[in-house]
Amino acid sequence: MEPRTTEPDALWRVYEAMDRLLSLLPIGPRAAGALEPLAAVAALLLPPLPPLPPAPAVAPPAPRPEDLAIQEALDEVLEYHRTHRPKNTARNYGPKQKE
Q1: Is the model's pTM score more than 0.70?
Q2: Is the four-CA dihedral 57, 62, 66, 72 of positive or negative sign?
Q3: Which listed site, 61, 63, 82, 94, has its alpha carbon 20 to 30 Å from 75?
């Protein structure tokens, strides 16, 4: 069973076919503007498209055990670096940089 072709689809295919045929003609750049009135007429003849239905809400997937283990290890490393910060060594480098 073939899908039915609607009138706007058929008109659009005719317009595209004519555009392809006209592009094969050896004519100058002035002819490119000749299709603009046709596009305006086609816009008047074609009904506006109905709005798209909203996308269905998709629940996020459940976290995998390996993802949880990775996140736990990251949190542990970050917490270690927050609590064991190195001493400020900028004061040791200041006099050397000024010299």
Answers
A1: no
A2: positive
A3: 61
